[in-house]
């Protein structure tokens, strides 16, 4: 111990392994339980108006083309971070995130526009007489299945393509 400075009584602080671990240009040092290593720098995301950074990518963001077609299946996987439409906004064909009222309605085969939306649209779940509670409220216009067609996995199919269920 150096009695003049008093440094001998202080506990040793472990050095940051990245402190003396040089990485090539375009890479940064990261540390984990195995020590230090170099990884490529991740480019900063610069999102446009009506977008936010999504930590799991933009696979499940709302799209104008899906609007009014009922729930859609979205795999529960996490992709690299990406810019996705902010809540309540939908990506249009031009790649911009817009309000639903600014999405053009393009109905698919066996669909037609209903000026009061699709709240009471028939689905395969109620194709065989199952009771569906439906409040008749006029929502924004949406694509609905044409008569004698039922929504199944986002598409309008004839009743014969709906599985029969006694429940």
UniProtKB/TrEMBL annotation:
Coiled coil: none annotated. Gene3D superfamilies: Laminin (2.10.25.10). CDD domains: TIL. SUPFAM superfamilies: Serine protease inhibitors (SSF57567). InterPro entries: Ser_inhib-like_sf (IPR036084), SerProtInhib-TIL_Domain (IPR051368), TIL_dom (IPR002919). It holds the Pfam family TIL. Residues 47-103, 107-162 form the TIL domain. This is Trypsin Inhibitor like cysteine rich domain protein. It comes from Ancylostoma duodenale. The lineage of its organism: Eukaryota, Metazoa, Ecdysozoa, Nematoda, Chromadorea.
